Amino acid sequence: MIYQITQYIQEIAKAQGWEEAVSWLRIFSYVSVRAVGAALTAFTLCMLLGRSVIQWLSDIAPETHTPEWAKNTPGKSEPKQAEEAVKEALKKKQGVPSMGGILIVGVMDVSALFWGVWNELLLLTVLSMIVLAGLGFYDDYRKVTRQGEGSSELVKIGVQLALGLTLVCYLYMDARVSFLIEEVMVPFYKEPILATGVVSSIVGAIIVILAVFGSSNAVNLTDGLDGLAIGCSLICTVVFLVLTYLTGRVDYSTYLNLTYVPGACELTVFCAALGGACLGFLWFNCHPAQVFMGDTGSLAIGGAFGIMAVLVHQPFILLIAGGVFVVEIGSSALQRYYFKFTRIRTGVGKRFFLRAPLHHHLQRLGWSETQVVTRLYIAAIIFAVLALASLKIR
After folding, report:
1. Does a cis peptide bond (omega within 30 degrees of 0) precede residue 97?
2. Are the beta carbons of 124 and 303 closer than 8 angstroms?
3. CA–CA distance, 323 with 36 (Å, rounded to integer)
4. Are 110 and 270 in contact (CB under 8 A)?
5. Every domain of the chain and the residues it spans
């Protein structure tokens, strides 16, 4: 919006003969300037509105529910001292409001739309994030008003898959961006591993749907400790900020053998706004947390990563950039299916981890909450460096 406003002012000034007086407004045509503005705006709004939003959430949901994993009985091999420490930590979290993701999504969308040049890529990402935030808010609200009973898995899966399918249809029907579906790219390779064709289109469509579905659920599962999901999201956002800027520039994308995606630079503004919102929310979500993002924030942020990975033609780079999220959802899936497998085979279900996802297993090993979060931050940074390195090693 600010770009269109400044352009309009410059056009009027030029017609009136006093364009030199407003020549400084040309700085708003630079993506870098608008990205900085978007980040600062989102962070400032978070800081200004944070306490009011937290109070409002406390009023509508004074008592938060206990997560299902916390209600389970400890395993036989689970260290008693570690279990007691975790229970004590859980007591301190009672009464902390959830649904804080509404703050993240709200300030981020306002900032991105104010500083960005509205195009189909930016609007597609913003609208998708709003849909997932709405789904998450519905689930969170049911949990806090129905004693822990959220929306059914069928509803959540259905909305996520429908969003992914809608994205596929939109991209496939638009000739300017249909190559994002028809050509399948992977990290460390210059050329598509599958080119245009029926098989390539089907595979590409499946990848898009899985990217949206998988990433939204991966961030959701990671949101279990103070500051963990939002901090890792901030680190992952930096990777996409760099990637969207490079793929949106003809010169840089050509030099690095990346696919040039017209208009992708505006996703850089989106990433900057998301980064500013994450940083502002981390102020309130760090240990001891004053608010949790809940499904409202985790589904939206995860879905945004999946959509951006698709729109810059690098869907698989999400597996590297979001390595912590991948490990978290992988540990949860392994725990679930290992339990089912052993129950079928032996009649007694066994657990691969002391608790899943991984961060809860680490707690049961005796790591403190701050140790788990800090060390997973370190892992997230390493994954981010590897993702950025893949842009050059091709």
Report:
1. no
2. no
3. 26
4. no
5. 2-389
Q: Is 184 helix (H, G, I), strand (E, B) or coil?
A: strand
Beta bridge partners, 184, equal 194
What is the C-alpha separation between 135 and 156, in angstroms, rounded?
A: 7
How far does the chain reach from its first CA to its final CA, in angstroms? Answer: 37
Q: What is the mean pLDDT of the chain?
A: 87
Contacts of 324 (CB under 8 A, 6+ apart): 222, 232, 376, 379, 380, 383
What b/e sequence results for 181-219 when a residue is b if at least 16 CB atoms lie within 10 Å of its CB, and e otherwise? bbbbbbbeeeebebeeeeebbebbbebbbebbbbbbbbb
pTM (two decimals): 0.89
- In percent, how much of the chain has pLDDT > 90? 57
- Dihedral of alpha carbons 292, 297, 303, 308, sign: negative
Residue type, 46: C
Residue 189, φ and ψ in degrees, nearest 5:
-125, 140
Cα separation, 229 vs 227, in Å, equals 6
Q: Who's near 138: CB < 8 A, 6+ residues apart?
A: 151
Predicted pLDDT of residue 89: 61
In the block, tokens 């991966």 appear at 218
The 10s digit of each residue's pLDDT in 288-310 is 899 999 999 999 999 999 999 99
CA distance 197 to 195: 6
Span 122-152, pLDDT tens digits: 999 999 999 999 999 998 888 877 666 667 7
Identify the CA nearest to 271 among candidates 44, 101, 104, 108: 108
pLDDT above 50 for 72: no
Q: How far apart are CA 316 and CA 306, in angstroms?
A: 9
Distance CA 239, CA 384 (A): 6
Token pair for 314: 């690098």
